[in-house]
């Protein structure tokens, strides 16, 4: 099969709907209980339940159910208990729909909007919140792609935002993680870059602030032309250039179906493209995708945004990272996936903010976000002054950061799931344990 049909691939990978084992939450949901009095505290969530980026949202219904069980007796604010209502809307992994469903949630009088997923989904939702004066929290997009890639941003003269706040690592942190991976294998430092034309790819390929200018002083050369579009099905010219330049490292951040197509074509190319290291963002985060990827995903590396071995726990439930991963598997019979950490942390911050701010005053909610300093299941998150290490000064008001490290997919024969992601590089984060050293990709048979 030289090319991957995107719809069929998503179906095989299990990325065409919400997480298995939990139903009835993909449209709108509320606690449905009696006891708490007063109007409900309403949280709207914009997420990808279907489509090419559904891996980001496949576990959202499970996270929401967990939050609702934890707060089954309501949310206490200033001595009074309010019912909690959470409304989840699917974007279909489509940028225009993200803006539409965000505005619909805003018009329904939510107290706080949450947005999660890749920049092409998070950014338009946040732009809608900014236009409407609605407090908004978001995650799962690198901060540069979120801050500078917004449709309501002016790239030549960037501005801060009043209503929208974000937490995620940045390209400077990603570079440290990738360098920590790449330094473990001897290569010629020529990098094959599959940077698609979207908000993520544009941030990574930026000639001033992207990966190439940052890695350049370390002796790395990037081959990244012609840059593909999202959804392209023919990578022959790019593969030809990679082979001609003898690129021994591959990096990219495409949607899962696009990487599946590229990876298959790299195997089918007459000369075959097989780098020593392949470090791929976005696509390689999700076990459901890894299980159906061909050729074998064993040895592929990626950033790790959250992992069960992190020494963290939830401020909301008290569960450790390992306990939360086990609970997810118990509930769904599926392997843990990184967004169960980041999306859970999104609700940790949201509930903490609302408890401090009260209801009915959007400005008070924004001020509570700006005053947040909280230990969460992804690490410490703060928007307070002085938190901005590694951030551009212009973004410090709106962005909080947390760790990112490097990992490698390995085969796990005889275990419950066929593959596992092990931590292999922890640059700048010695508190996160490393399980083993990076191993080079095996030659194709």
| CATH topology (level 3) name of one domain | Rossmann fold
In CATH's first tier, which class of one domain applies?
A: Alpha Beta
CATH architecture of one domain: 3-Layer(aba) Sandwich
Number of separate helices: 14
- Sketch the major β-sheet: 7 strands, mixed
Helix content: 25-40%
Q: Low-confidence segments, ≥5 residues, pLDDT <50?
A: 1-34
Tell me the structural class: alpha/beta
- What is the CA-CA span between the terminal residues? 17 Å
Q: Based on CA inertia axes, which overall geometry fits?
A: globular
Q: What is the averaged pLDDT score?
A: 90
* Portion in beta strands: 15-25%
Instruction: Please list the strands of the largest sheet in the order they lie side by side.
Output: 1-5-2-6-7-8-16
Keywords:
alpha/beta; four-stranded parallel β-sheet; Rossmann fold; disordered N terminus; globular; 445 residues; single chain; 18% strand; 14 helices
Q: What do these coordinates show?
A:
The chain has 445 residues and is an alpha/beta fold. It has a domain of 258 residues: Response regulator (Rossmann fold, 3-Layer(aba) Sandwich), CATH 3.40.50.2300. Helices cover 31% and strands 18% of the residues. It contains 14 helices and 18 strands. The strands form five sheets. The protein has a seven-stranded mixed β-sheet with strand order 1-5-2-6-7-8-16, with helices on both faces. Strand 3 and strand 4 form a beta hairpin. Helix 2 packs parallel to helix 13 and helix 13 packs across helix 14. The longest helix has 19 residues.
């Amino acid at each position: 099969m030289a090319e991957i049909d995107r719809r069929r691939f998503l179906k095989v990978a299990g990325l065409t709907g919400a997480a298995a084992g939990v139903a009835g939450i993909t449209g709108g949901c509320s606690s449905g209980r009696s006891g708490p009095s007063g109007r409900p505290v309403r949280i709207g969530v914009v997420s990808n339940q279907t489509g090419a980026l559904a891996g980001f949202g496949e576990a959202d219904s499970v996270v929401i159910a967990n939050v609702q069980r934890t707060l089954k007796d309501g949310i206490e604010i200033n001595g009074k208990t309010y019912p909690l209502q959470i409304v989840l809307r699917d974007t279909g992994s489509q940028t225009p729909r993200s803006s539409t469903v965000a505005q619909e949630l805003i018009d329904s009088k939510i107290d706080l909007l949450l947005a999660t997923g890749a920049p092409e989904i998070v950014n338009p939702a946040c732009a809608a919140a900014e236009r409407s004066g609605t407090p908004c929290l978001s995650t799962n997009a690198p901060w540069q792609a979120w801050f500078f890639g917004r449709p309501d941003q002016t790239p030549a003269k960037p501005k801060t935002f009043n209503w929208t706040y974000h937490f995620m690592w940045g390209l400077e942190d990603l570079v440290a993680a990738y360098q920590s991976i790449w330094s473990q294998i001897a290569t010629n430092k020529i990098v094959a870059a599959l940077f698609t034309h979207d908000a993520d790819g544009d941030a990574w390929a930026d000639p001033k602030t992207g990966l190439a200018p940052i890695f350049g002083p370390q002796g790395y050369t990037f081959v990244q032309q012609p840059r593909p579009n999202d959804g392209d099905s023919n990578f022959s010219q790019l593969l030809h250039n990679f082979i001609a330049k003898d690129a021994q490292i591959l990096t990219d951040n495409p949607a899962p179906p696009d990487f599946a197509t590229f990876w298959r074509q790299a195997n089918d190319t007459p000369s075959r493209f097989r780098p020593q290291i392949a470090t791929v963002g976005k696509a390689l985060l999700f076990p459901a995708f890894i299980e159906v990827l061909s050729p074998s995903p064993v040895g592929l590396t990626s950033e790790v945004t959250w992992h069960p071995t992190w020494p963290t726990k939830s401020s909301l439930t008290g569960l450790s990272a390992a306990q939360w991963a086990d609970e997810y598997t118990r509930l769904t019979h599926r392997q843990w996936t990184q967004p169960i950490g980041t999306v859970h942390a999104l609700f940790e911050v949201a509930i903490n903010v609302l408890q401090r701010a009260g209801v009915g005053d959007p400005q008070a909610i924004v001020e509570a976000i700006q005053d947040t300093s909280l230990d969460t299941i992804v690490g410490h998150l703060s928007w307070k002054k002085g938190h901005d290490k590694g951030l551009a000064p212009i973004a410090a008001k709106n962005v909080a950061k947390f760790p990112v490290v490097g990992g490698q997919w390995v085969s796990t024969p005889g275990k419950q799931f066929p593959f596992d992601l092990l931590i292999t590089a922890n640059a700048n984060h010695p508190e996160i344990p490393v399980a083993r050293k990076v191993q080079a990709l095996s030659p194709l048979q």
